[in-house]
Amino acid sequence: MEVDFGGQGEIVFERRGCAGLIRLTRPAALNALTHGMIRALRRALVAWEADPEVACVVVEGEGRAFCSGGDVIAAYKAGRNGTPPYEFFSDEYRLNAHIGRFSKPYIAFLDGIVMGGGAGISVHGSHRIVTENTLFAMPEVGIGFFPDVGGSAFLPHLPGHFGTYLALTGSRIRQGDCLGSGIATHAIAAEAIDGIRARLIDTGDVGAAFAKTDTPDFETDAATRELIARGFGEPTLESCIAALSKWAKTGSETALKILSVLESRSPTSLHVTFRQIAEGRALEMDDCMRMEYRILNRMLQGHDFYEGIRAALIDKGDTPHWKPAGLEDVSPGDVDAYFAPLGDGELTLP
Fold first, then answer.
1. EC top class, in one word (predicted)?
2. pLDDT exceeds 90 at position 137
3. Would you please indicate which residues are annotated as catalytic (active-site) residues?
């Protein structure tokens, strides 16, 4: 039975058997999240968490993406028109925090592209299921932003500083890396989704539904993971780059490629993200979301977020002109400002 929680034409909700089913239905936009989708999804979670007939919630995307992120072009246009979308992000962050504390099994089938906001509506849930089609990334530093939607809550805890690497480079990973790093909890073949969903609807027994899963190996080889662990385990951004530079000079092609990626990213985003990940290690989910909302406010008031979106998505493929242009031009005081309290403007959480 279809249920109306809003978001018509963009997200569909059904109550079937023991499960609440959610399907993102913007395949042409790779299921990018709109404000209406975010609000509707949260209304569904509130209702189904209180409904004793709903044993679990299942979230999927239509087409070749689970969810490619938030609708950043809409955010760009709003900001350029003088109305930065603070409410969009505050509602999104409240949704991320709600998923993090959701009291029932929350199953996300990550069968396809998962980026940014797509991670925010999946990785904080109890069951993150990857397939051979999964392509995961937190690419925000490439558009002058930062890995928000709870990136500070899960990225710092991936083993071998893999989360710091993903945050600073925006690198794309697949099924084995997601499972091995802990981003995913289970791996299956895409063709198994229908059968598992049917069992969840019939019984609500999540343990039985995922009793038989796959164990793909890392796609990133052991030597590269060791380089990442050492290079991104340094105490400062500058020392990480120095370590990578040292290995690049000794002939490491991997270190050279990573450095090339970092050089293309927003210097401000790199500095802010490095500190975000460092501080997130000691914070609970709700405190991470409050910290991210402080950063978000300053990003929406700055330059690089709009410049990054212009270059990548408006003028497609243009070279962004970051301000400041170099890592050495971003002062500690500049970074501190992103983390300063907002006073009455702090994110409120239930």
1. hydrolase
2. yes
3. 70, 117, 140, 148
